[in-house]
Design goal:
Blueprint lengths: L4 E4 L3 H11 L5 E4 L4 H6 L5 E3 H9 L4 H6 L1 E3 L2 E5 L2 E5 L1 H4 L5 E3 L2 H15 L3 E2 L3 E6 L7 E5 L5 E5 L2 E4 L7 H5 L4 E16 L9 E3 L6 E7 L2 E8 L10 H12 L11 E15 L2 E2 L2 E3 L5 E2 L7 H22 L3 H28 L5 H16 L1 H12 L5
Parallel strand pairs: 1-2, 1-12, 2-8, 5-14, 12-19
Antiparallel strand pairs: 3-7, 4-7, 5-6, 9-10, 10-11, 13-16, 13-17, 14-15, 15-16, 17-20, 18-19
Bound molecules: 8-demethyl-8-dimethylamino-flavin-adenine-dinucleotide (RFL) and P-hydroxybenzoic acid (PHB).
Length: about 400
């Protein structure tokens, strides 16, 4: 089997790249190990930067995000039982964020690809990649019926997420930068109307809590927990009691409802450099992950492919490989900016087991909420810096 660009992974990065290349008449095959149902139900990110929504729109797949996404103009930081608004739009010349579940983005992209009749092979797990130093890299994969096959292409893109095959394969040639944080998030999805109009990031002596939203009837909430947290130790009433404590402010109540989903997410920063190895390019979580406190992972994944797509077109249409050569360096500038911001938000909002660090970060947050300059800096990073 042959195509121009083989894309491993039907997450936001792989599917968006497929769409951007479709619009340029470049042939692609997307190989995805999971089923369509699985990728469309996987609950993850919720905050889209304006530039992300603009890009989806330009690619003709942003209609539902525009219609159903919740446009937000601010977020709340809570410290010492007091809430402080970061006026995102006022501080950034009118920029916004849109709350729209990642699985909805994935549904929209899958629907568009299916409608275009382009190859998107679910249940097909890429098991190995070869010949990346030639003009014809290859991906081997196991299909749903147990058969194995091989895809030969002009370029391969590893958009297979943090647990995929592409990064481990090139790891020996990479410099991998890593940081583990000494805590994790216990996340829930609950069938209850959000108790807030804007996201609340709360720092509390018992640990961080985040109140996010999905729709007028569904809330998404997170609690800082231990890295090895046992979910069985967290029946629903304990989760709600802990959330009530951490979000408590006078005159406000947190409404409770049935919990639809629970999970524990470790907090890590990883960057693999470079993001190009011959004719294998890494995009999205395959190349880097950030802790979720800055809401950057999905936005970075989309930014990577926005940077990559025109460079692929230059190579395949005009034989110009300057853009591909420069892809990693360009994408990594943005990645490291997001690492810094995500680290800052994470450190400042969480209870740290190191008492000195904990006091220092508490002081930093108190400064941020009191300073116009510091709030502006948080706002411009949160809404997203321009692609560069
Ligand atoms: P994905 O979404 O992981 O997709 C990779 C796809 O590749 C498939 N795959 C394979 N396919 C074929 N062969 C193989 N060998 C394969 N191995 C893997 C997988 O099945 C999958 O379908 O990566 P992508 O596209 O790079 O997208 C990245 C985002 O998913 C991720 O960065 C965000 O979800 C991170 N994130 C957030 N990002 C934000 O921008 N804003 C947020 O508010 C936000 N909140 C979050 C988050 C991530 C979280 N978790 C669970 C990690 C909140 C949480 C709790
Ligand atoms: C989410 O809605 O899932 C969400 C929002 C903000 C974050 C992380 C996750 O920083």
């Amino acid at each position: 089997m042959r195509t121009q660009v083989g894309i491993i992974g039907a997450g936001p990065a792989g599917l968006t790249l497929g769409r951007l290349l479709e619009l340029e008449d470049i042939d692609t095959v997307v190989i995805e190990s999971r089923s369509r149902e699985y990728v469309e139900q996987r609950v993850r990110a919720g905050v889209l930067e304006q530039a992300t929504v603009d890009l989806l729109d330009e690619a003709g797949v942003g209609g539902r995000a525009r219609a159903e996404g919740l446009v937000h103009h601010g977020v709340i930081l809570q410290v010492d039982g007091q809430r402080h608004r970061i006026a995102l739009s006022d501080l950034t010349g009118g920029r916004i964020i849109v709350i729209y579940g990642q699985q909805e983005v994935v549904k929209d992209l899958v629907a568009a690809r299916v409608e275009s009749g382009l190859p998107l092979w679910f249940g097909s797990e890429c098991t190995s990649i070869s010949d990346i130093d030639t003009d014809h890299p290859r991906a081997r994969f196991a299909g749903p019926d147990g058969t194995t096959d091989e895809l030969e292409c002009d370029l391969l893109v590893g958009a297979d997420g943090f647990h995929g095959v592409s990064r481990p394969l090139v790891a020996p040639q990479c410099q991998v930068f890593e940081r583990d944080y000494p805590f994790a998030w216990l996340g829930i999805l609950a069938a209850v109307a959000p108790s807030t109009d804007e996201l609340i990031y709360a720092r509390h002596d018992r640990g961080f809590a985040l109140h996010s939203l999905r729709s007028p009837t569904v809330s998404r909430l997170y609690l800082q927990c231990a890295v090895e947290e046992d979910l069985d130790a967290w029946p629903d009433d304990r989760i709600w009691a802990e959330l009530q404590t951490r979000f408590a402010v006078d005159g406000w109540t947190l409404d409770e409802g049935p919990i639809l989903e629970k999970g524990v997410t470790p907090m890590r920063s990883v960057v693999a450099e470079p993001m190009r190895h011959g004719r294998l390019l890494l995009a999205g979580d395959a190349g880097h992950i950030v802790p979720p406190t800055g809401a950057k992972g999905l936005n970075l994944a989309i930014a990577d492919v926005a940077i990559l797509a025109p460079r692929i077109v230059d190579l395949l249409r005009n034989g110009d490989d300057a853009g591909i050569e420069d892809y990693s360096q360009t994408a990594l500038r943005r990645v490291w900016r997001a690492q810094d911001f995500s680290n800052e938000m994470t450190s400042m909002m969480h209870k740290n087991p190191d008492p000195f660090e904990d006091r220092r970060q508490h002081a930093r947050l108190r400064y941020v909420v009191a300073s116009e300059a510091a709030k502006r800096s948080i706002a411009e990073n949160y809404v997203g810096l321009p692609f560069w």
